[in-house]
Design the sequence.
């Protein structure tokens, strides 16, 4: 079973500007340095005529996780996140995302859409989180979904700061 997670964030900047920041390798490295956790890194970054693909590594210190997570996921937790972005039209971008949590029965996958909304822009995400652990899988999924929400909030705030510094 999996748990669906929806997320929405807005910016007072056009989607083209937000997209340019979100796929910029310097931005990604700076974001990871601030909120990526132990061992965070930009592992891949490719730009081609179809769009941008990158792979990120996040780290979680187990002591920062609830006890139920530590019983299922002992030791350091390494998360890899693959994102592929493509322009859909003027002021509109779409992405697929796949998340692997190494050495665990947990994963996540979904999509994102960034688009103009008049003088601002909006990012919409839908992610499915799956944890294949008998009896407590749904509990762990709920915790993971909450942590994903917290991470996206931090990333959105970082993006706001990044863009504001460039205006």
Sequence:
């Amino acid at each position: 079973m999996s748990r669906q997670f929806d997320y929405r964030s807005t910016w007072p900047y056009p989607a083209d500007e937000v997209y340019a920041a979100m796929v910029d390798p310097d931005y990604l490295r700076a974001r990871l340095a601030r909120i990526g956790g132990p061992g965070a890194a930009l592992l891949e970054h490719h730009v081609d005529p179809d769009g941008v693909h990158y792979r990120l590594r996040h780290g979680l210190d187990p002591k920062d996780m609830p006890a139920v997570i530590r019983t299922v996921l002992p030791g350091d937790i390494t998360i890899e996140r693959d994102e592929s972005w493509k322009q859909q039209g003027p002021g509109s971008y779409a992405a697929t995302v796949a998340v692997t949590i190494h050495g665990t029965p947990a994963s996540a996958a979904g999509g994102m859409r960034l688009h103009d909304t008049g003088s601002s822009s909006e990012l919409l995400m839908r992610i499915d989180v799956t944890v294949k652990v008998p009896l407590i899988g749904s509990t762990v999924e709920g915790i993971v979904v909450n942590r994903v929400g917290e991470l996206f909030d931090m990333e959105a705030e970082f993006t706001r700061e990044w863009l504001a510094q460039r205006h």
Summary: The first helix runs from residue 15 to 22. The beta strands are 2-11, 41-48, 51-60, 77-89, 92-101, 106-117, 120-131. Helices lie at 15-22, 25-35, 67-72, 137-165. The longest strand covers residues 77-89.
